[in-house]
């Protein structure tokens, strides 16, 4: 059985992509548990508003760091900024990321590259630089955000789904590597959620996706609870769990065709 959540009050959590969607909810839930926060995103004006609200409501320390994590070396720079302020990160929430919807060959290569830099390279670098400290002191939590789409091929989301398959496998492997050192790695896999994800990805939700829609706070709460209980992988929502379970009995070719229909067929 997973261990019960330990006391994290007064310790530091770092949340990337904290300016909207899941990031806001992760930060709020951790502040409710009295964790101090480092909030990271490009839009510092939005972060400052969230920081002020969390300071007032929960009497925690909140630091805002404006940074484009898709740029080379950004993870190392962020670690250096934390070190310079004497911040020891106990919980890393690797939430920054986005998707691109549409035929792969019609997407500008620069856009696809930027997405992969953020979803894969920056996430990996951040995990590496902060996990090393956690291992050295024998404690820490890491939450990685994959996706329901990471469990199968998804036409229309070819590169994005593949990037989330990387997060899923990377996180599950690291869970076993770091567990003996007192560090847990948890992978949260959300499905369709009421965030700005679809707008950023230029995708319209179909009727099926609207039926599967979950609220971001509910998804974030599932992720934080799983992280503190040191679980490996958690799917948000019963329906999403059923979809993933059905994949075990469905040929991979059929999975891709089903997902193509779910996301709108031929565009």
Describe this structure in words.
- The protein has helices at 21-32, 44-58, 74-84, 109-137, 158-178, 197-201, 207-211, 216-228, 238-247, 252-262, and strands spanning 12-16, 36-41, 62-66, 89-94, 140-145, 183-189, 233-235.
- The radius of gyration is 18 Å and the shape is globular.
- It starts with 11 loop residues before the first strand and ends in a 5-residue tail after the last helix.
- α1 crosses α8 and α4 runs parallel beside α5 (158-178).
- It is 49% helix and 14% strand.
- It contains ten helices and seven strands.
- A seven-stranded parallel beta sheet has the order 3-2-1-4-5-6-7, with helices on both faces.
- With 267 residues, the chain is α/β, with parallel strands linked by helices.
- α4 links the parallel β4 and β5.
- It has a single domain (12-262), classed as 3-Layer(aba) Sandwich (Rossmann fold).
- The model has no long low-confidence stretch (mean pLDDT 87).
